[in-house]
Amino acid sequence: MTPVPRLRAYAGPALLTYGFRPFFLFGAIYAGLTVLAWLPMFYGELEVASTFAPVDWHVHELLYGYLSAVVAGFLLTAIPNWTGRLPIQGTPLLVLVVVWVAGRIGVSLMETLRDFDYGVAAICGGMCSCATCHVYVGERWLDQLPPMQGDEKEILQELESYRPRGSRLSCQVPFEESLDGIQVAIAPEE
Ligand code: FES
To answer: Which atom of ligand 1 is nearest to the CA of 124?
Structure first.
């Protein structure tokens, strides 16, 4: 009987052999740093460049930074064990880690809207696949937004509520200080 392979032929860094390795490592380091940063932030001695108030930043980063890393590491390792599928390793795993790191540095418009309870469902969590973060951006802000990338336009064009001028997936719009005061309307649910 031929044994079922558990890993692909892979000769890269050991860190990228299993999903739990980078995500547990970086998640744990990040949790430590987040907690260390929290006290000086709480006492007003440290300011982090963020659109969130300090307490919101802290909650946000523990939930969407630390917890998401731990869950990702667990699922990327457990699912191949449960299903017999080969795990994600090497470059695809590195891309996921880079996306997670990018999420720690930048906050999207969707996250800002969601955290302030503006009624954005964002079911896919910002993976550009659900369109439940569809918004209409006010005319005068449109030119300040980064151009659409990847699947965003394709997904939007499939919606009945799509407007060629104004529609954006808010998870694909990084929220920067220059967008402070941006006017958006939440598109109707489909
Ligand atoms: S959150 Fe799913 S597409 Fe934006």
So the answer is: 2
Domain that holds residue 64: 14-106
CB of 69 closer than 6 A to ligand 1?
A: no
Distance from Cα 14 to the centre of ligand 1, integer Å: 32
Does residue 21 form part of some domain? Answer: yes
Q: Which atom of ligand 1 is nearest to the CA of 171?
A: 4
Domain count along the chain: 2
**pLDDT tens for the 190 residues of the chain, in order:** 666 677 778 888 999 999 999 999 999 999 999 888 888 888 888 877 666 678 878 888 888 889 999 999 999 999 988 888 888 999 999 999 988 888 887 778 888 888 778 888 888 877 788 999 999 999 999 998 988 977 899 999 999 999 999 999 999 998 877 888 889 999 998 8
Quick check: is 1 in a domain? no
As a whole number of angstroms, the longest Cα–Cα distance in the chain is 67
Q: Are 122 and 132 in contact (CB under 8 A)?
A: yes
148 and 100 together in one domain: no
Reported in sequence order, the residue ranges of the chain that DSSP labels E, i.e. its strands, are 134-137, 167-169, 184-186
**Quick one: which atom of ligand 1 is closest to the CA of 125?**
1
- Residue 108 near ligand 1, beta carbon < 6 Å: no
